[in-house]
Amino acid sequence: MALTGMDIYKLLPKKNCKECGFPTCLAFAMKLAQGAVEATKCPYMSDDAKARLSEATAPPMRTVKFGAGDKCYNLGGETVLFRHEKTFVNKPRFAVLFSDAMSEEEIQGKIARMNKVDYVRINEEMYVEIAALKCESGNKETFLSLIKKVKDSCKKAVPMIITSNPEIARAAVEECKESGPILFGADEQNCEAMVELAKQHGLLLGVTAPDQEKLYNLVQKIQNLGYRELLLSTESGTLKQTFDDVVNIRRTALLSQDRTLGYPTLVFVNRLSKDKMMQLAMATLFVEKYASVIVLDDIDYSLALPLFALRQNIYTDPQRPMKVEQGLYKIGSADENSPLLVTVDFALTYFIVSGEVERSKIPSWMLIPDAGGYSVLTAWASGKLSGKSIAKAVKDFAVEEKLKTREIVIPGKVAVLKADIEDELPGWKVVVGPDEAALLPKFLRDYADK
Ligand code: B12
């Protein structure tokens, strides 16, 4: 449970030395309780008090890790129930399920579809981060051969070993331990052996129980065994109950500050429906509330596009606009005579405008200056989009070397910039485009015809 200001005050040296920057130890204690200052600011605190405070002031949901090297991921560490309260921090990761009872054809099909999901959207690489590998055969050798196959073919995905048999788990971990797998399947019966194995290799341990109450007791038992790198899951089997479980776990951790359930959660959407569109819909639900690992039966490019875009939108800081990279972008087979349009680096604007340019089927260039990640008018009103910033982008991205044209189309909303830009870019002509991107296809067709 969280400590109050008075609880913290009792742990302080009460010297009122002011070295922490506050006039009294009591004022410092109150700020510590609000999380507005770090305990390390007090130079005279005893080691014991430091340990108690760091435990008590740590976020109620633990941040845990899995993976290795550049494929290492954090889960959990969330501090709010709703994104607009502050921000969500560690995005959920998607997993595709492979079982050692599947046919070779099915496995190879999944591997091929999963590997095709590999693209960049707003500076983020999109791919499936986890290969969930389930032992259904009960046969160690069969399972190891599945792990090897998937590991060799899906280089980007970290394995998640799913078994409740500690002996098979141990062999499976040996097969892929260098990639920092998740070990899933600690339950009431096997938890001692599974904890020992997870501890030995520092693995994230997936804990599973039939319902919330049993899960709570099991986590307490595992914490008493000295292990806290956990990922929680219930086996309820229905969408309603699973949703309830995941939401309650988050609420118990954050609102009641009960750290027994202060861990990220895993949801097998593939167990809730066999229909792939339904699984997609459920996955979107659990991206928002509140799973940290979401297991699907399968994925392909068309399923990934909405799912990954949603995740990206939810897991960005609402106080910071999403930006695209500045530069000169080619749309279609634009050449040195194609139209040149300028817009801003606010991702929403860029995607609307580039979509309309594509729709026009007129190959074009888009120039993105540094506009602070703001919309056209916001950037103009804050002085970030100006004759100078546009002229700078023309120079920085060597537009005069790549294009013969000396004409640039600007958004209608900033028609007022025309004279400024022409002053900054001698020999250039500024053409004022329409106010709305939806009018761009007609505008571009007329412009290209003249
Ligand atoms: Co503001 N803000 N804002 N703002 N903001 C507004 C833009 C507006 C219009 C509100 C108002 O007063 N009516 C004013 C600007 C008034 C003016 O000068 N004419 C305004 C102001 C004054 C400000 C502040 C200066 C306020 C202040 O601090 N005093 C600050 C500036 C920031 C700072 O540095 N302090 C400010 C701040 C903000 C925040 C809250 C931060 C957000 C910014 C979010 C962001 O931009 N990333 C903000 C918003 C959201 C808005 C708001 C409500 C929406 C802007 C938006 O997102 N538009 C507008 C009001 C409004 O527009 N309804 C005010 C959507 C995008 C997609 O539109 O970029 O213009 P867009 O793109 C469209 C077109 O321009 C066109 O197509 C797009 C789709 O149609 N287009 C084209 C785009 N590129 C191109 C290219 C070509 C070639 C062509 C032809 C067309």
The CATH class designation of the largest domain is Alpha Beta
- Mean pLDDT comes to 95
Strand content: 15-25%
* Strand arrangement across the biggest beta sheet: 10-9-8-7-6-3-12-11
- Tally of helical runs: 17
Structural class: alpha/beta
pLDDT under 50 segments (min length 5)?
none
* Global morphology: flat
**Are any ligands bound, and if so which?**
cobalamin
Number of domains: 3
The name CATH uses for the topology of the largest domain is TIM Barrel
Radius of gyration: 27 Å
| Percent helix | 40-55%
CATH evolutionary superfamily of the largest domain: Dihydropteroate synthase-like
Could you give a short account of the major beta sheet? 8 strands, parallel
- Give the name of the CATH architecture of the largest domain: Alpha-Beta Barrel
What is the first-to-last residue Cα distance? 72 Å
Per DSSP E runs of 2 or more residues, the count of β-strands stands at 17
